[in-house]
């Protein structure tokens, strides 16, 4: 390295300043390219991770649907504030309703004879107000040979509504249905 002091003319100083400016720009550009390459590598890793996670979720979803079909088990979620429910395909089959049909509290209660629907209403209301769990057996109105066993209790809070219940329905080989999972409440 040359450490000798030098004197430059104004023209040479301007040329050196331009050279320093160009060199600085090239270094910044190179740094930007390296950063972009790092980000692209990270993005590619993240993309691969997301693809793998998505594939795993689809695999689990497929297995869950297959399990529901084989075991005659279905899941549901009920929002008593909005008086609407979401059911899996198997719950629609067990209840004998058309897939995708909008499910309201009135439709759920209409699945049972009036005395059974009243028992379910009382049980849901008591659970929603924290008066303990319930476990009732109800007969399906349109299919008198089929029953549902409905255990339920107050669960964790939900973000999308003030009160919520969730569970699962299982049709037994004896032509009875059992609602198995916990009914959750309170947002």
Features:
Beta-Lactamase; seven-stranded mixed β-sheet; disordered C terminus; 187 residues
Q: What's the level 1 CATH class of the largest domain?
A: Alpha Beta
CATH superfamily of the largest domain: PAS domain
Q: Output the strand order for the largest sheet.
A: 3-2-1-6-7-5-4
Overall body shape: rod-shaped
- Rg from C-alpha positions? 33 Å
Describe this structure in words.
- The chain has 187 residues and is α+β, with helices and mostly antiparallel strands.
- The protein has two domains: 9-71; 72-179, Beta-Lactamase (2-Layer Sandwich).
- It is built from four helices and seven strands.
- It has helices spanning 10-71, 89-95, 105-110, 114-128, and strands at residues 73-79, 84-87, 103-104, 134-139, 147-152, 165-171, 177-179.
- Strands 3-2-1-6-7-5-4 form a seven-stranded mixed β-sheet.
- Strand 4 (134-139) and strand 5 form a beta hairpin.
- The radius of gyration is 33 Å and the shape is rod-shaped.
- Mean pLDDT is 79; it is low at 173-187.
Please write out the topology.
Layout (H helix, E strand, L loop, with lengths): L9 H62 L1 E7 L4 E4 L1 H7 L7 E2 H6 L3 H15 L5 E6 L7 E6 L12 E7 L5 E3 L8
Put the structure in a nutshell.
This protein has 187 residues and is of the alpha+beta class. The protein contains four helices and seven strands, in the order H-E-E-H-E-H-H-E-E-E-E. The protein starts with 9 loop residues before the first helix and ends in an 8-residue tail after the last strand.
């Amino acid at each position: 390295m040359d450490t000798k002091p030098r004197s430059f003319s104004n023209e040479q100083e301007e040329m050196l300043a331009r050279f320093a400016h160009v060199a600085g720009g090239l270094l910044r550009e190179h740094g930007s390219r390296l950063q972009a390459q790092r980000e692209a590598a990270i993005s590619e890793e993240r993309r691969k991770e997301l693809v793998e996670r998505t594939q795993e979720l689809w695999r689990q979803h497929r297995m869950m649907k297959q399990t529901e079909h084989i075991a005659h088990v279905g899941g549901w979620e009920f929002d008593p504030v909005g008086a609407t429910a979401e059911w899996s395909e198997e719950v629609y089959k067990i209840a004998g309703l058309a897939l995708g049909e909008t499910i309201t509290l009135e439709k759920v209660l209409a699945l049972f004879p009036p005395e059974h629907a009243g028992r379910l209403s009382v049980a849901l209301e008591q659970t929603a107000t924290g008066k303990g769990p319930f476990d009732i057996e109800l007969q399906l109105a349109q299919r008198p040979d089929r029953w549902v066993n409905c255990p339920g209790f107050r669960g964790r809070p939900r973000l999308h509504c003030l009160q919520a219940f969730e569970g699962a329905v299982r049709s037994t080989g004896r032509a009875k249905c059992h609602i198995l999972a916990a009914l959750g409440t309170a947002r």
